[in-house]
Every structure is written in C-alpha cells, then in structure tokens.
Write a structure and sequence with these properties.
The protein is α+β, with helices and mostly antiparallel strands. The chain has 21 helices and 22 strands. The strands form seven sheets. Strands 2, 3, 4, 5, 10 and 18 form a six-stranded mixed beta sheet that branches. The protein has a five-stranded antiparallel beta sheet with strand order 12-11-22-21-20, with helices on both faces. A hairpin with a 6-residue loop joins β21 and β22 (about 545-550). α5 (about 135-145) packs antiparallel against α6. The longest helix has about 45 residues, at about 1-45.
Length: about 600
C-alpha cells in the first residue's frame, strides 16, 4: 500500500514544482523586463535630461552686473552715472578664526563684528559679506590681506583665510548734482533698476544686459579644471542726453524754495521750457531731495508737482479763453462788453477781484485787468460748443504726452454735463484742472504761432538715434499765426502793468490766483494757488517760465505779487544761460488799470 501511495503522489508533487518554477521564472522575466525598460528609459530616453540635471548640480552660475548708462544734461553735464564697486564674499567653511576675521571686516568696511560673525556662521560655501564697496576700500582690504602685522603663526593663518575672499564687480548709482533736477532724474533701487523719474521712464535703455559665468565645481566647491568654465560678458546700458539745463534747474529750484519759504507756502512748482520745441530746461517742485541719500526721503519730496499734480490754474487760463475766442471769430481784441460789478448765473454770483461799477471793457482790457466777469462774457459770446472745442484743441482731454512716469490728463467733464456756471468758471480757470506742465504747453501754443508742442526730456540716445522720438511730428497747429500774435500783444501789456519786465526784452505773460478746493468741502477760504506764466522774446519766443506757489500764508496771495517776481528772475537768468538775444522793440505801455491777479 505504501509504495502505491508514493507512485500516485509523485506526479502531483512534480506538477506543483513545475508550477512554482514557472512562477519564479515568470517573476524573474517580469523583473528583468522592468529593469530593461528602466535601463532603456534612463540610458536612451532620459539620458540627455539626466545628464543635464547632473551637470546643473555641479555648475555654479554667477551673474555679473551691467554698467548702467549715464544720464547727461543738454550741455554734457553728468546727472547720473554708475561707478565700479565690489561685493565681498567668502566661503564660510574656509574661515576658521571667524571672530578675528569679523573684526578685520569691521575695521575695513565699518558695521559691527557681530553682523559679520553671523554671516560667517551660515551654512554653505558662499556668503556675501559686504555689498557695493568702493574701489579704494576694496584695494586697501586686499593689500592688508597680503601683509600680516606680525610673523606669528596666528597672523599667518588669518592672512591665509583673508586671501580666500572673492571680490565681484558691481555698480553703484551716483548723482553728482545731488538735488539738481533730482525729481526729474529720479533714482534706482538696490538692484539698480529705475523706480522713479527718468531712471524709470527710460530704464530699458539705461540698464543694459547682465553678464553670467558658469563654473563646474566638485562637492567641496572647488572648480573642476577640465569641467565647464564659460563667461558671457555683460552688455552696458546706453547713455541718454536730456533737454534739462543743470544751471537753470539749480537756479529755478533755489528761487522756488526761497519764494515758498518767504510766503509760508505749502509747496511750489516751476516749469522752464522752450515754447517752440517743447524742450524742458527745468521742472521742479519744493520740497525736493538728494537721490544720493534716500534714507529719509518722503513721497512728498520725490513727487514732481510740476509734472504730475493737477490743479485749477485760475486766471492764467484766461489766455486760452482769449486765444479760442479770437480763433473762433467770436470776438476781436477791440470787441467790447458791458461788465457789471457782479453777475448772477443761476444760484451763483460771479465777481471780480476788486469791486467796481458797470464798465464797458474791450477784450484787451478784460484780459489785462483780469476780469472774471469779462472772461465769462467772452466765453458766452463763443457759446458752449465752441468753447469746449477750444479746450479739446488745447489737449485738456488728453495727456500732454510728456515722457515722464505718472503724468496724467487734466480733469475736463464731458460737454453734456456742462452748465452756464461751468462755462463761466472755466473761462477764468476754475472747475477744470491740469498739470503745471500742461498749462505751460497751452501758453506756449498761444505764443509760438499756434502750435501745440509735446513737452519732453529726452534729447538723444547717442549711438542709436532711432530710440529718440521725433517730437516735432507730434506737433499740432491749433491757432493761426495771426491769432497767436494778437494774444501775445495783449499779454505784453499784462507784464507791463505788473512791472515784471525782463530788462532788454519784450515779454508776454499772465498772472493767476486760483481758489483751491478740498475733498468733500469745495473751495476753502484762504487757500490759493498763486501763479505767473510768460515767455520772451514776445515776437519770437525762445523760453517760457511758469511759477506756481501753493497755499501762500503770508505776504499776500495774488499771483502777480507772489509768483511774478520769481518768474521774472528765473526768466532773466535763463536768457543769460541760453544766450538768448534781446528783442529790438521796447515793452509797450499798457493802459486800463491793473492786473488784479
């Protein structure tokens, strides 16, 4: 019985063994197939990517700063430049006497030993210890690292550690003129990128392209001699030349600051411009700042009110009303109106600066005596549609086109929202708003033959003139030359009345004393924007100046007496600096009372 059971069980065991062998064989073949597939994927399909990944882990990439382009004024004076400096770095693992090294860094570059010690205790093979060290300090430190104060073993070891330091090139932005045209030029941030003014406006032209170096290193951070070592040199940025005149900018800033202080004003703005081309010689406001020292600079100091702040211009805007009315044919300089002492328009009463009875005044008299009621009469003769068209012709519904960040168009309500009182207010510069530079643009068009120019700062990009806009192509003829001449003749008398002549020149100008509104309160008693704007020579304008003093609190508030003397002083200086030839004719005598603004 027993042998029979063995014979009967043997085939079963064999079958089980065979199944087990097949199972193991199948698993082995499956694992082999997976291994082959993985090997194929790694060696063939992913070989290039994995090799690149491994290479990247071994390669150290360092960026080299590009030298930023220099900013020049119109005479070649440097307004902003980048100077060579160094970043000092080290491998903390190679610095054994960290306390002594930290003290040596403090002696060389200032700061505190504790700060350097914290940096030297960081993990890794690279740490920047000092940024933007000038070349003199870097050279002195390098020299000290080569000279041990004594021959002691400790000093020699310290010297060896100092010699492992690396010095990488960088650039620091400096502004030689300090506060000169500071708000126009602007400044860069810690990374060398423009963040304000022209530095921001033309950052792409100025900044250049950084360089980069690739170095294949071992696990200890040492370069592999046969490995990848490649350097791409940085490409410096382009220089730019501005229309700014440093001397005029400095003089205008000094005079503006003094005027603001003398009248206890909150702030002020000045624009000096070529009325024929739109070249801006100066555009400043107070308070200002020094871009070399930004530690305590406020937004108020950085903001150039002459270029970005909106305000209601007041009676200086009567120049636009005058030009538009003459261009439309609604009036002539001799057209007369009955001008009462006050004028009721709906719920509003319009008054002049000084009380007077009913007068018959010509258009010329209305402008020279700066009558608000007279300006209302002139605008009324034009009609709302024609007057609104004048405002759009002068560009009040659009940005001035100036190449400066933060510029904006003025406030001009849609024509459908205008009422009779709105028309009256606008005729003497209230109820509408624009920037000082936009007003300067309007006055320039009234005096330069009727051409609306684009105020601008960029004069040229040396070596690539294609980057410089053709500003003249943006000009637009909005008045006839004859109308411009008539406007100028009337404004010549305003300058005479206000005794703001520039010796040797016939000039034309207009004062303004505008009420200032406060959010939610409307016009506030005692808050004014006092201004004067004009140009010379009257028959061939070469330079225009606008001065605005915001909220004077003492020594008067009328534009002619507050802003007028500063305007005349800046114009006088500009004629000398620009070598403008005096006009052959004399300033005309004006009649008809005084300019009450």
């Amino acid at each position: 019985m027993s042998p029979r059971r063995t014979q009967q069980g043997s085939p079963a065991r064999k079958q089980s063994s065979q199944r087990l062998i097949k199972l193991f064989t199948g698993c082995f073949l499956l694992l082999l197939a997976l291994a082959v597939a993985r090997l194929f994927t790694v060696q063939i399909l992913q070989a290039k990517a994995l090799a690149q990944k491994g290479e990247n882990q071994r390669i150290t990439q360092l960026s080299t700063a590009a030298q930023r382009g220099t900013i020049y004024d119109r005479s070649g004076n440097v307004l902003a430049k980048s100077v060579l400096v160094y970043d000092v770095s080290a491998d903390p693992t190679l610095i054994h006497d960290k306390t002594a090294v930290a003290e040596r860094l403090r002696q060389a570059f200032g700061g505190t030993s504790a700060t350097y010690l914290d940096l030297l205790r960081r993990k890794g093979h690279y740490v920047v210890l000092v940024r933007k060290v000038d070349t003199g300090a870097a050279a002195a430190f390098r020299k000290s690292a080569l000279l041990a104060p004594s021959d002691s073993a400790q000093e020699k070891k310290l010297k060896e550690q100092l010699q492992t330091f690396a010095f990488s090139q960088d650039y620091k932005r400096v502004y030689p003129g300090a506060t000169i045209a500071a708000q126009v030029v602007g400044f860069v941030n810690a990374d060398g990128k423009g963040v304000a003014g022209i530095e921001l406006q033309y950052d792409k032209i100025l900044r250049g392209t950084p360089g980069v170096s690739f170095s294949e290193r071992d696990q200890s951070g040492n370069p592999i001699p046969s490995g990848i070592q490649k350097t791409i040199a940085p490409k410096p940025g382009r220089d730019i030349i501005l229309t700014v005149d440093s001397a005029i900018s400095y003089y205008a800033q000094q005079k503006l600051d003094a005027t603001v202080e003398a009248h206890g004003a909150v702030s002020g703005a000045v624009v000096v411009m070529n009325p024929k081309t739109g070249d801006l010689y100066a555009a400043a406001s107070t308070p200002s700042f020094d871009p070399n020292n930004l530690d305590k600079v406020t937004n108020e100091a950085v903001r150039d009110r002459a270029l970005v702040d909106l305000y209601e211009p007041g009676s200086t805007f009567k120049t636009v009303t005058l030009a538009g009315s003459l261009q439309s044919g609604a009036v002539t300089p001799q057209t007369t109106f009955s001008v009462p002492g006050s004028l009721q328009i709906g719920d509003h009463v319009v008054k002049d600066a000084e009380q007077h009875g009913v007068q018959t005044m010509s258009v010329t008299d209305i402008i020279r005596q700066s009558s608000n009621i007279g300006a209302t009469r002139i605008a009324g003769a034009m009609g709302l549609s024609a007057y609104y068209q004048t405002l759009t012709d002068f560009g009040l519904d659009k940005d001035s086109g100036i190449d400066f960040p933060g510029s904006t168009k003025g406030y001009l309500a849609p024509q459908a929202q205008w009422t009779d009182i709105g028309l009256s207010n606008a005729s003497f510069g209230q109820g509408i708003s624009l920037t000082p530079v936009s007003l300067a643009r309007c006055i320039a068009a009234a005096g330069n033959g009727g051409v609306l120019v684009t105020p601008h700062f960029l004069a040229d990009v040396p070596g690539d003139h294609a980057l410089t806009p053709d500003w003249a192509k943006q000009n637009k003829q909005i008045l006839s030359a004859s109308v411009s001449a008539e406007v100028t003749r009337i404004l010549e008398g305003v300058v005479t009345i206000d005794h703001l002549e520039v010796p040797g020149f016939v000039s034309a100008g207009k004062s303004g004393t505008a009420q200032m509104a406060e959010q939610g309160k409307g016009y506030v008693e005692g808050r004014y924007a006092s201004s004067f704007v004009g140009y010379l020579p009257a028959d061939d304008p070469q330079v225009l100046c606008l001065v605005v003093i915001f909220q004077p609190s003492k020594n008067g508030y009328y534009g002619a007496s507050v802003a007028g003397p500063t305007y005349a002083d800046i114009l006088r200086y500009a004629t000398s600096q620009l070598k403008i030839t005096a006009s052959g004719k004399s300033q005309p005598k004006a009649t008809g009372g005084t300019d009450r603004d």
